[in-house]
Write a structure and sequence with these properties.
By secondary structure, this protein is mostly helical. It has 12 helices and no strands. The longest helix is centred in the middle third of the chain and has 22 residues.
Amino acid sequence: MQLDFIGNIYNNSFIQGDLFDTPVARKPFTKDVEEFFHSVNSNEIQEHYNYWSKITPEEPEQKFQRYLFAFLSVHTSYQNNVKAYIRIKDFWNWMGNEEELRSRLIETGVGLHNNRVRFISAFSKDYWQNRKTDYEKKNSEKWTEYRDRLESRILGLGLAKTSFALEMQHPLKAQCFCADTHLFQLYKLNQSKHRKQYKNIEDHWLSWSKMFNIPSYIARSIFWNRKQKQSNCHYWAYCLQ
C-alpha cells in the first residue's frame, strides 16, 4: 500500500492545544517535534508501515500478548523487555500459577518482579473473563477515551503503557500516544516534573501526525528507531511475530 505523504505544510503560526501559556512561549517547546515531522521521508513511512502491517495482531491471544509486552516495558531497557517477554509469551503454561510466573521473570532479570506478578496476574484474569465486554473499543469511543477507560481499569500500566499496548495492537489506527521519557525530552519537558502535560503533548503529536498523514505510532516508531540507528522495529519487535 502506498501512502500519500504530505510535505511542505509547515505553518509557523500553528500551535495545537494549550501546552503553554502563549504561542510565543509554546514555540520553543514544540519546535523540535515539528522539525522532526518535517524531516520524516516517505521511504521511512513506507518501511515502518509495511513492517507493522505484517505483524498487526488479529486474534485475542495475540492482543493479550501485546499487553504482556507493555507490562514488561515498565522501567526497564528494551533488551530486558524482549528477554522477559520471550520467557512468558507462552502464557498458557503459567497462567493461574503465580510462582511459575515469578520464577520466569526472576530468571530474566527484568526487575520489579513482585509488582509485575501481581499486576499481570490480576490483568490476565480480568482480560479473559471480560475481554468481549470491556476490552474492545466501542464505536462511540474516541481512541483516547478508550485508552483512558482501560487505563483506569488496568492496574500497573498508566497512560503511557496502556497507550503502548494499544499502539502495538492497532499500529496503523490507534489515535493515542505513548509519551515516554524520550518524547517528553523532545518537547523539552521532564517526565517526572511535567506529567500533567501528558495529554497536551499527546494532542500536539496526534495533530501533527494527522497533518502529515502518518499513523501516530508509525511516527513515534520512526523517532525511536532513529535514536537506535535502526531502519525499522524488527530488532525488538521480532519477538511479537
